[in-house]
Design a protein that fits this description.
This protein has 478 residues and is mainly alpha-helical. It has one domain: Growth Hormone, Chain: A. 74% of the residues lie in helices and 2% in strands. The chain is built from 19 helices and 4 strands. Strands 1-2 form a two-stranded antiparallel ribbon. It has a two-stranded antiparallel ribbon with strand order 3-4. Strand 1 and strand 2 form a beta hairpin. The longest helix has 52 residues. The radius of gyration is 22 Å and the shape is globular. The protein starts with 10 loop residues before the first helix and ends in a 14-residue tail after the last helix.
Length: 478
C-alpha cells in the first residue's frame, strides 16, 4: 500500500478541510449541551413533569427527544452519504441545525418544540457519523487519528460553549426563566445562539471537496484524481486512485445489506463480526453514563446540593477539562494506538464512577427528598466527576469515533456507520431518557450501573477490538 504520509501531503489544505468538517462536531456538541440549564424554562413554559416519561408533559422525553432524531439521522446519513456524497449530506445537516435552533428558540407549543428538537437531533446524528468518516477519507493514515480526534475537541468545545453561553445568559437575565433580549426569556436565547455557527457551517461546506472514496465509488475517477492530487500531490494521487478503485472494482456498489455476513464468513445472528465490534464500541460509549453529566449536569449537581449558579460553573469547568484531555489524545493516539487508550479509559472511568458512588451513598436527604452532600463529599464528587470526564475524553470520547470512521473497509463503511451510529444514539436516548426516573429512585444506583458498564467495556475491548493505528483504509478487513 502507498502511504500518503504527512511529509508528502498538503497539510494546510487538509487542515482547512478538517476545520470545516468539524464545525459539524461543534454543532453536535452545542445542540447536545444547549438543553443543559434550560430545564427550568422548559418545565415552567410547557408545564413539564420532571419524573414523567410522557411525550405530552415529561421533562425526560422533552430533553431526550433530540436523541430520537439522532439515531434516525445517524442511520440514514450513512446510507445517504453513499448515495448523495458526504459533502451534500453535510449540507443538509447544516440546514437542519439552523432550522432546529430557530424553531426551538421561538416555539411556544410543546409539540412544535419537540418536532424541532427531533430535527436538530437528526442533524446531530448525521454529523456524528459523517464528520469522522469524511475526515478519515481525506487524511493520511499516519495522522488520521489526530485529525479525527479534532472532531471530539470540537464536540466538547461546542458543549463548553453551550455551557458558557447558558451561564452568561442566565447571569445577564438574573435567571434562565427571566426575560432578556427582545423580551424573550434567557433559556430561549440558549437555543437561538446556535443559529450563528449553523449558518457558518452551511456556507463553509461550499468550499471543501467531496470525498475521493465516494467519487471513485460513483465512477467519477477524474474528479477523484483532482482531489487526491490536491491532497497528496500528483505522484501519490495516481497510485492512491488505483488502490481505491481496486477495493470497489472487486465488488458491487455499497449497499446496506453489506453488513450481513457472507456465507462462511465470521458473524453472529447473520451480521459481520466487524459490525458487531462497531456496535459494541458505539453502545458502551453511552452505557458508561457520560451524557448524564453533559445533558443533566446542572440538574445533577443541584441534586448533589449545589446552587444553580455553581452547577453551571461546574459544567464549564468540566468542558474545559474535556478539551484539555482531547489534546492529550491528539499527542498520543497515532503513537500508542487506539486499543490501549480504550483500555486505559475503561479502567479509569470504572474507578472514578465508583468514587462518585461512594460520595452519593454517604449523602443525606432533605425534607424534599433531595440529596444533600457535605462540603467534603461534594468536593470529592466534583473531583471524581472531572477525573471521569478526563478518562472519557482521553479514550472513549474521541477514539470510538476515530475507530468507527476507519475500521470498516471502503465497501462497508457507509452501511456499517449507519448501523453503529443508530445503536450509539439509541443507547444515548435510553440513558438520557431514563436518568430523571433513575435519579429519583436512586442516584447512587444509577452510578453503580454506569460503573459496572465501564468494567464490562474493558473486558470487551481486550477481547474483541483490533488495532487500526497506521493502516490505510484500503487495508481494513471486514
Amino acid at each position: 500500500m502507498t502511504e500518503a504520509g504527512p511529509e508528502r501531503a498538503n497539510l494546510g489544505y487538509i487542515g482547512a478541510i478538517v476545520a470545516v468538517a468539524t464545525i459539524g462536531g461543534f454543532l453536535f456538541g452545542y445542540d447536545s449541551g444547549a438543553v443543559n440549564g434550560t430545564q427550568p424554562g422548559l418545565t415552567s413554559t410547557f408545564d413539564l413533569v420532571p419524573g414523567s416519561f410522557s411525550p405530552s408533559n415529561g421533562l425526560g422525553f422533552t430533553v431526550a427527544s433530540l436523541l430520537i432524531g439522532c439515531f434516525i439521522g445517524a442511520f440514514f446519513a450513512g446510507r445517504l452519504a453513499d448515495l448523495l456524497g458526504r459533502r451534500n449530506v453535510m449540507r443538509i445537516t447544516a440546514l437542519l441545525f439552523l432550522i432546529g435552533a430557530l424553531v426551538q428558540g421561538f416555539a411556544y407549543d410543546h409539540t412544535l418544540f419537540v418536532v424541532a428538537r427531533i430535527l436538530g437531533g437528526m442533524a446531530v446524528g448525521a454529523a456524528s457519523v459523517l464528520s469522522p468518516a469524511y475526515i478519515s477519507e481525506v487524511a493520511p493514515a499516519s495522522i488520521r487519528g489526530r485529525m479525527t480526534t479534532v472532531q471530539q475537541i470540537m464536540i466538547i468545545t461546542g458543549l463548553t460553549a453551550a455551557f458558557l453561553v447558558n451561564y452568561l445568559l442566565a447571569a445577564g437575565a438574573g435567571a434562565s426563566t427571566e426575560g432578556f433580549w427582545l423580551g424573550l426569556e434567557a433559556w430561549r436565547w440558549m437555543y437561538l445562539m446556535q443559529a450563528v455557527p449553523a449558518a457558518l457551517f452551511l456556507a463553509a461546506l461550499y468550499f471543501i471537496p467531496e470525498s475521493p472514496r465516494f467519487l471513485v465509488a460513483k465512477g467519477r475517477d477524474e474528479t477523484a484524481l483532482q482531489v487526491l492530487t490536491r491532497l497528496f500531490g500528483s505522484d501519490v494521487a495516481k497510485t492512491k486512485l488505483e488502490e481505491i478503485r481496486a477495493t470497489f472494482n472487486a465488488d458491487h456498489q455499497p449497499r446496506l445489506s453489506d453488513v450481513l455476513a457472507p456465507v462462511g464468513a465470521p458473524g453472529f445472528l447473520g451480521i459481520r463480526s466487524i459490525v458487531w465490534v462497531g456496535i459494541m464500541l458505539a453502545v458502551f460509549q453511552q452505557l458508561v453514563g457520560i451524557n448524564v453529566i453533559f445533558y443533566y449536569g446542572a440538574t445533577l449537581w443541584q441534586l448533589a446540593g449545589f446552587s444553580e449558579n455553581d452547577s453551571l460553573l461546574i459544567n464549564i469547568v468540566s468542558g474545559a477539562v474535556s478539551i484539555a484531555a482531547c489534546f492529550v489524545t491528539i499527542a498520543v493516539i497515532d503513537r500508542i494506538g487506539r486499543k490501549p487508550l480504550l483500555l486505559i479509559g475503561s479502567a479509569g472511568m470504572a474507578v472514578t464512577l465508583f468514587v462518585m458512588v461512594y460520595a452519593f451513598s454517604h449523602g443525606s436527604l432533605d425534607a424534599s427528598d433531595n440529596l444533600v452532600l457535605s462540603p467534603e463529599l461534594g468536593m470529592l464528587a466534583v473531583i471524581a466527576a472531572n477525573l471521569y470526564v478526563i478518562f472519557f475524553n482521553v479514550s472513549w470520547g474521541p477514539v470510538m469515533w476515530v475507530m468507527l470512521g476507519e475500521m470498516f473497509p471502503n465497501q462497508l463503511r457507509g452501511s456499517a456507520l449507519a448501523v453503529a451510529g443508530f445503536f450509539q444514539w439509541f443507547a444515548n436516548f435510553l440513558i438520557s431518557f431514563s436518568f430523571p426516573a433513575m435519579a429519583a429512585w436512586s442516584l447512587t444506583g444509577s452510578y453503580v450501573f454506569y460503573g459496572v458498564c465501564a468494567v464490562i467495556s474493558f473486558i470487551l475491548v481486550q477481547r474483541f477490538v483490533r488495532e487500526t493505528k497506521g493502516k490505510e483504509l484500503e487495508e481494513m478487513q471486514g
